[in-house]
Amino acid sequence: MSIPDATTSPAGVEILDATPVALGGPRGLEVTRTLPSKHRRMVGAWCFLDAYGPHRLAGSRGMRVGPHPHIGLQTVSWLVAGEILHRDSLGSRQEIRPGQLNLMTAGRGISHSEETPAAHSGVLQGVQLWVALPDATRNGPPAFTQHAQLPVLTDGGLTATVLMGDLAGAVSPARCDTPLLGAEVTLTAGSRATLPLRPDFEYAVLVIDGAVTVADVPVQPGPLLYLGEGRTELRLAAGPDTRLMLLGGEPFTERFVMWWNFVGRDHDEIVAARQAWEDRAGGGPYGVVRGYDGPDIPAPPMPITRLVARGRTR
């Protein structure tokens, strides 16, 4: 499905095309990135979205992302198939499997690595998301939590797992620093369902598998369907068996700079965060990730022009 970035559909929504990216370098695992896009940077506080797989790992080492730093954001790891081993500078060592949520809050600084463990099922599929932290909490202490049990809604052919926030009264235990929703929704072939939405939230849908009509717009895996604000419900009609991610949140009004793995507020903050990673002998503000068999990821060069803080659209 090839659709120009930020095409406006007849229903008034936007279809944001996916960009292929090699995770961790030219020979890295291929992912498709829909946030940030050319025209739209966010959905609520969701500011980054990669989808990957299904990748067959025979003859491959799978995911190999060496230690790297973050500030000012949360990382949200969600698997459909396979396993990922997370290590971080807090000393966390946690394998994630489908149906479990790994939530890392960078705050003022953390580093971590992600890799396919030596013993694995031979397939990998999932999504990696970032949440921008508001000014009130973005400089707080780093944290890591795994949530192995999450609330699940069922209604006919629909099953929804609430990763973050609240959907139809099902509330995730995961930390949210701004009003937010993240849910995985599966639909059996031919089923129809309607989900309640908050009109003060903006929403988007990413199809992982299958095909579905969302608010009268047909969607397949690849692009992100941005639905905007003001909706009180969402109508879904599946073709084959379908799995999708429903993302939403109160529009994020703070302006910020997102560069490499950092979410800051101005150019100078990003420069300082990068330099702290380059000067990290002994750990520095990002600590040390122990146990990963490979090098840290170096920071790329700063751009020749100053980075400018921007809002949720470009």
What can you see in these coordinates?
By secondary structure, the chain is mainly beta. The protein has a single domain (7-249), classed as Jelly Rolls (Sandwich). The chain has one helix at residues 267-278; strands at residues 7-8, 14-16, 19-23, 29-35, 46-56, 64-70, 73-81, 84-88, 93-96, 101-105, 110-115, 123-132, 143-147, 152-155, 158-167, 170-171, 180-187, 192-196, 202-209, 212-214, 217-219, 224-228, 233-238, 242-249, 257-259, 262-264. The strands form five sheets. Strands 1, 2, 14, 15, 16, 17, 19, 22 and 24 form a nine-stranded antiparallel beta sheet that branches. The relative contact order is 0.19. The model is unreliable at 1-8 (pLDDT under 50).
Overall CATH architecture: Sandwich
Largest sheet: 9 strands, antiparallel
Q: N-to-C terminal Cα separation, in Å?
A: 24 Å
What fraction of residues sit in β-strands? over 45%
Q: Can you count the helices?
A: 1
Q: What is the 3D form?
A: globular
Order of helices and strands: EEEEEEEEEEEEEEEEEEEEEEEEEEH
CATH topology: Jelly Rolls
Structural class: mainly beta
The count of DSSP E runs of length 2 or more, i.e. the number of strands, is 26
Q: Work out the count of structural domains.
A: 1
Radius of gyration: 19 Å
Q: What is the class in the CATH system?
A: Mainly Beta
Keywords: Iron, Metal-binding
Protein name: Pirin
Cofactor: Fe cation
Domain Pirin N-terminal: 30-131
Topology of this structure?
Layout: E1 7-8, E2 14-16, E3 19-23, E4 29-35, E5 46-56, E6 64-70, E7 73-81, E8 84-88, E9 93-96, E10 101-105, E11 110-115, E12 123-132, E13 143-147, E14 152-155, E15 158-167, E16 170-171, E17 180-187, E18 192-196, E19 202-209, E20 212-214, E21 217-219, E22 224-228, E23 233-238, E24 242-249, E25 257-259, E26 262-264, H1 267-278
Antiparallel strand pairs: 1-2, 2-22, 3-4, 4-5, 5-12, 6-11, 7-10, 7-12, 8-9, 8-11, 10-13, 14-15, 15-16, 15-17, 17-24, 18-23, 19-22, 19-24, 20-21, 20-23, 25-26
Protein name: Pirin
Domain Pirin C-terminal: 183-279
InterPro entries: Pirin, Pirin_C_dom, Pirin_N_dom, RmlC-like_jellyroll, RmlC_Cupin_sf
